[in-house]
Specification:
The structure holds two protein chains of two kinds. Chain A is mainly α. Chain A is built from eleven helices and no strands. The chains are: A mainly alpha, B alpha+beta.
């Protein structure tokens, strides 16, 4: 007998709401410049450095979320999928760090961590997004997973696919393309959580609100990254003006 | 010189080899850029048998082997255990830094 999925329609609606925005994220200028081979090596370093800084901060976000998960609060599949998502984000963080070393932009990880292009700046678009996500720690796990996986992750999937297709550098093309299946699985995890665990009216309302907020703050982070990459005079701090 | 490779049938992908290698600045362990993101060892960067730090940290028996002979190096066999002082570690790091 098929299991009823109380949040199936909501999950589809939330993902569908994010989907059109993937076609024109703030990183579109970077995608177009990459396709036109107009991105310099320095600009690629700025891009990868900032993406690395953002991925590193997911440890901070997920650490807070994980510490508020209670044993047996959810079925084991939920805990497993959350752990898998943390593992994947860690892989992506390592891939960016590896790219910086591989490209010779830094010789050691410790020197990369000190480089201005790779630093996390709290007063920046990325900072706003990360602190916003960290703030979701007090919400139910189903709601915060929906927020990140049906909002920012849908957008991330979109720009990752297009940037991979646009990159002329074979290494960077593989760097972005190889993250696509895992990012897609995170979107599916968001659907899984909403379909099964979001059914009460108050949760439905909160879920819509949080997805919208996470998407808005992620777009702010992407604006900051795009400004930093495409306008070399802009520092990560200045990019917070969005 | 003998080289190392990862036996993916036994590797648990725990990443200890990656972190240990990166910590001393050799960066020979890397993530393959195919979607399965498996760990591999760059034989051009790896300075085995001068350095055996990945073998010391690897928890999965048989997951790192000598490529030429197929000999399992996890847990490290007795011939790899030497007197490895701080000076040895400094030499390893210097050797990595001298590589282009």
């Amino acid at each position: 007998m098929a299991t009823a999925l109380p949040g199936k329609e909501l999950a589809e609606a939330l993902e569908a709401e994010s989907r059109p925005r993937t076609l024109r994220t703030p990183l579109e200028g970077i995608v177009e410049a990459a396709a036109a081979q107009a991105l310099t090596d320095d600009q690629y370093f700025r891009l990868v450095g900032q993406l690395w800084a953002m991925k590193r901060m997911y440890y901070y976000v997920y650490g807070a979320w994980g510490s508020s998960l209670t044993i047996n609060q959810y079925p084991p599949s939920v805990d497993y999928l959350f752990a898998k998502q943390i593992y994947d984000e860690s892989t992506h963080e390592m891939l960016y760090s590896q790219a910086i070393l591989h490209k010779g932009w830094a010789k050691f990880q410790r020197s990369a961590l000190r480089h201005p292009y790779c630093q996390f700046v709290s007063a920046s678009g990325i900072g706003l997004y990360i602190f916003s996500m960290r703030g979701l720690a007090s919400y139910a796990h189903s709601l915060r997973m929906a927020a990140i996986d049906l909002g920012p992750k849908v957008l991330e999937l979109g720009w990752l696919e297009r940037l991979a297709a646009a990159s002329q550098d074979e290494y960077l093309q593989k760097l972005f393309a190889s993250q696509v299946p895992e990012t897609r699985s995170h979107v599916m995890m968001g659907r899984f959580m909403v379909e099964r665990f979001v059914s009460q009216p108050v949760d439905v309302a909160l879920c819509k609100e949080l997805v919208s907020m996470a998407r808005r703050d992620y777009i702010t982070a992407l604006h900051g990254i795009a400004d930093f990459v495409l306008t070399p005079a802009v520092s990560p701090q200045r990019s917070a003006s969005h | 010189m003998p080289t190392l490779r990862v036996d993916h049938a036994k590797c648990t992908e725990c990443r200890m080899c990656y972190y240990a290698c990166e910590e001393i600045g050799i960066n020979a362990v890397y993530i393959d850029l195919e979607p399965r993101h498996r760990f591999e060892i760059d034989t051009h960067k790896c300075i085995y048998p001068t350095c055996v730090v990945c073998l010391m940290y690897c928890p999965a028996p048989g997951s790192i082997v000598e490529a030429e002979t197929g000999r399992s190096l996890v847990p490290p066999p007795p011939d790899l255990w030497r007197d490895r002082s701080d000076k040895w570690l400094r030499d390893v790091i210097l050797a990595a830094k001298e590589k282009p």
